[in-house]
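Record type: monomer structure entry
Structure origin: computed from sequence
Chain ID: A
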Amino acid sequence: MKKILFIGGPGNLSEHAITHLLEKTENKIAVFTLPESPDKGFAGKVDFFRGNRDNESELLQVIEDYKPQIIVDTVCFLPAQAEMIARLAEGKVEQFVFISTCDVYGYPLSTIPMPENGTWVKTNSAYAENKRLCEEVFNSYYKKGTLPLTIIRPSYSLGNGFFLDFYARDNGVRLVPRLQSGKPIIVPGDGTGLMHVSAAYNTGRMIGKIAGNLKTIGKSYTCGHDTLMTQNSYIKLLAEALGVEANIVHIPTDLLHKAGCKEIDESILDHLTRHSVAFSMDAFKADFPDFKWEKTIKEALIEYVQYNKARGFFKPVIEETFEDKLVSAWNTATKNFRI
């Protein structure tokens, strides 16, 4: 029997990793999470410890009481957090799995698709830089021989509680109602930029495959789908899931940044979604050739729409937004553009 401790969750990815691990009867799972975090239906199936991962005494108490053989850290975002858990876990576990991010490779990617051993470039967000620093902390303990480390870098993995549009990580609260009402959707550039969209269901199960598999120690894996899509295709698939037709407007990304629009300037467009993103899954496929990507992106989108519609998450579009103003300015500028 393997005793596995998840730090954080059950969340977008970890709930599917836990489900996969519970399918193996020899596994015993525990989750250390905040007091207010929901159990996502795992009550009675896993052991819950409640507390704050930034409280060293609480974190140490869980490790000493539960005595996990495997730790999967899903909520380590700062190097100080990495230093604390690495120090507390060193010499005590068979495997330590750190959930990092593909953003550590830096954008624009040096290679398309990007392999784990490709050339990294400068990160362009605080989130990515801190995750990279966390990896450095964990690797320093691995090199000392005191922390049997595996690093997982998920690509964007959409789930019922996590959806990305080109400008925000707001779970679609802005984008979905616009599509439903036939409002124009600005796709930056010409819409042919690549997106590496994955279903959280599949990415989580990839994590579940890796956790507890000791042959993965000392390795890093990019986890996500083994297929790609364009930005246009992403919006069209979401529209299909909603049963509508997408009203797409293309505006060059550089012009969007010159428009003096606060919402664009403060969005994720510049440091993430303006770039073509594609990652190689070859390292994972080499070690887990039998893995099946069971849920398609379209199926994941349909599930996401149904789940959030049933909870009244999407509100009708009432007021004019920055997107309406940008489309109006673009239409005015291009209407009479001719020789």
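Annotation 1: Residues 126-144 form the longest helix (19 residues).
Annotation 2: Residues 90 and 226 are 34 Å apart (CA to CA).
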